[in-house]
Structure formats: structure tokens, C-alpha cells
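re: that chain from earlier
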Amino acid sequence: MWKSFVPVVVNLLLGIPAVVPAFLVWYVLSNGPLAELGWTQREPTENDGMWLWLVFVVPVVGVFGGFWALINLWMRRRLITEAPSYPYPYPYWSLAVTLTLAPYLLGAAFG
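^ sequence. v structure.
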């Protein structure tokens, strides 16, 4: 029974440092493509361009995403022996993404 709680706890704990890459992605999207579509407004003091932000965002998201994927692949292989195949074959990954993004979404909702 405890094996099913390990991925939940680990992904919630990984969600705490995931606040940084999630915020960086939102910042780039809200000042770039979403502002061009008129869905958001640009930051008035942002005049350095998007390339500078991409220099920071791509490595941070890449390193965190790689670490997150390796940890979850290892946990899924070691702790979950049977993977349900019906009706949705990969509930582990949707739950892992949701739990990892939960601290960011809660911080955005209540912050």
C-alpha cells in the first residue's frame, strides 16, 4: 500500500522547485506569443527581447524536465508492477504532471 503513495509524495515535492520553470514558461508565453494574440499584456519594462529569456528558460526547463522524467521512469518501473491498460493506458503520467504542477497552480490561485 505504501508503494502507491511514494510517487504522489515525490511528485508533490518535485512540484516545489517546479514553480521556477513553470513561472519562466508562463512569463515567456505571456510576453511573447500570447501578447501578440492580444490575450495578455506585455510587461511594460520588458524591453530586452525574448532571446535573452530563452537563454534562461530552455536550460532550466530542460534540466528540470529531464530530472523529473528520469525520476518518474525509475519510480514507475520499480514501484508500479502492473500498468492498467483500459480505458486510459497511462494514468500514471497524467497524475504525475498534475501533482507536479499542483504547487504552482495553488500558488497562482491564492498568491
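The longest helix spans residues 50-79.
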